[in-house]
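Deliverable D2.4 — example input (C-alpha cells):
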C-alpha cells in the first residue's frame, strides 16, 4: 500500500472525528439556540458538516457514489435554508 494512500486514509479519519465533534456542538446550538435564526443557522451548519462527513467517507472507502449523495444533500439543504429564510422574513414582518 503506497504511503500517500495511507496518509489520505488517516487524514479522512481525522477529518471525520473533527466533523463529528463539530456536529455535536452544532446540535447543542440547535437545541439551546436562544432564538429561531440561531437554530436555522445551526441546522444549516449540521447539513454542511454532514456533507463534509459524506465526502470524507467517500475518500475513506474509495466509493465515488457517495459524492452523488453529497450533491443531493447540498441541494436539499440549500432549498431548506431558503425556505426557512422566507419563513423568518414573513414572520418578522407580521
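Example output (designed residues):
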Amino acid at each position: 500500500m503506497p504511503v500517500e494512500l495511507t496518509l489520505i486514509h488517516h487524514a479522512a479519519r481525522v477529518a471525520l472525528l473533527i466533523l463529528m465533534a463539530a456536529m455535536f456542538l452544532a446540535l447543542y446550538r440547535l437545541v439551546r439556540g436562544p432564538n429561531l435564526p440561531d437554530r436555522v443557522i445551526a441546522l444549516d451548519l449540521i447539513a454542511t458538516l454532514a456533507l463534509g462527513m459524506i465526502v470524507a467517507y467517500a475518500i475513506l472507502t474509495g466509493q465515488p457514489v457517495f459524492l452523488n449523495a453529497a450533491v443531493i444533500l447540498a441541494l436539499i439543504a440549500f432549498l431548506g435554508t431558503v425556505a426557512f429564510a422566507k419563513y423568518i422574513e414573513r414572520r418578522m414582518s407580521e
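The chain has a mean pLDDT of 91.
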